[in-house]
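Subject: for your reference before the review

Hello V.,

The reviewers asked for a structural picture of the protein, and I figured it would be easier to keep everything in one thread rather than splitting it across files. Below is the amino acid sequence we used in the manuscript, unchanged from the supplementary table.
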Amino acid sequence: QVRLVESGGGLVQPGGSLRLSCAASGFTFSSLGMNWYRQAPGKERELVATISSAGGDTDYADSVKGRFTISRDNAKNTVYLQMNSLKPEDTAMYYCNAPRRGAWGQGTQVTVSS
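And here is what came back from the structure prediction:
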């Protein structure tokens, strides 16, 4: 059974940092690219970052370039999203996605507010 479980969200002040984690199980994690998406209330789900299976290729939405970093540890079946210099507009539910398996996690809430 394919499973993705996100963690690490929370409330942080503007300018702060958070690291999200997504633990994967039920498939060969090291063979698949992974994505992080986010969805703010009343907005469409947005692709934030993507990483190749081995981790050598990454890409980011323009809105987070230079502030967010996606990485993975294939030995731990985990993908991460390091978020720095957070802004109120980063407030959203963040989801992990394995596109080739059509799998989504339950999401973790990130709220950036003073």
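For the response letter, the relevant points are probably these. The chain has a mean pLDDT of 97. Residues 33 and 52 are 4 Å apart (CA to CA).

Happy to draft the paragraph if you're swamped.

O.
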